[in-house]
């Protein structure tokens, strides 16, 4: 299992130790949620923080844009150090164009679905993206309860990927712990995003390793 700890749950007043912990962990990515207070009812952080994080973090940055019109910021996201640029299907009027812009900028392209958005809407884009992120909570805030219907969506998405000969990875974000992570692994998920479960622990390195070991 690939693991992408969520920066949203880190200690913003003292980020460097948390980033150094990530560097020394089994994590595969660092997940960064960018919120604009419009697409989601919260505001997180922007390009200066991502750039500062990139200077310390040795893991690839998995940048999840919870914003309107994400296509306007492709160059800035790339220049801030992102490896993956993840946009919401619900926020993109011209999703195909946005995915191409992300690839042309040299990043991996991800598409995110909110909990109530059906997997079937991905049929015409699934073979062009590198990653699909399924939200297992409503986006905008951390420490929410896992939505059980996500397991069905992971299985449905795994079937769509197989029938489309897509290479897209399945990422899941929200309410992830060892229990929900195990269920998601069995359903076919490839990447787990986890915030509170990792950063609120007395042993975050162990928590990351426990998720990494799921199969």
Name some characteristics of this structure.
215 residues; alpha/beta; 8-stranded parallel β-sheet; 8 helices; 33% helix; globular
Write up this protein.
With 215 residues, the chain is an alpha/beta fold. The protein has helices at 15-23, 47-56, 74-79, 95-104, 150-163, 178-187, 196-199, 204-212, and strands spanning 2-5, 30-35, 61-66, 82-88, 108-113, 131-135, 169-173, 191-194. An eight-stranded parallel β-sheet has the order 1-8-7-6-5-4-3-2. It is globular. The model has no long low-confidence stretch (mean pLDDT 96).
Please tell me the overall pLDDT: 96
Structural class determined from secondary elements: alpha/beta
Integer-rounded radius of gyration: 16 Å
What proportion of the residues is helical, as a percent range?
A: 25-40%
What's the β-strand tally? 8
Binned strand content: 15-25%
Q: What is the helix/strand order? A: EHEHEHEHEEHEHEHH
How far apart, in Å, are the first and last alpha carbons?
7 Å
Largest sheet: 8 strands, parallel
Which descriptor suits the 3D outline?
A: globular
The number of helical runs is 8
Low-pLDDT ranges: none
Order of the strands making up the biggest sheet: 1-8-7-6-5-4-3-2
Compose a concise summary of this entry.
With 215 residues, the chain is an alpha/beta fold. It is 33% helix and 20% strand.
Topology:
Blueprint: E1 2-5, H1 15-23, E2 30-35, H2 47-56, E3 61-66, H3 74-79, E4 82-88, H4 95-104, E5 108-113, E6 131-135, H5 150-163, E7 169-173, H6 178-187, E8 191-194, H7 196-199, H8 204-212
Parallel strand pairs: 1-8, 2-3, 3-4, 4-5, 5-6, 6-7, 7-8
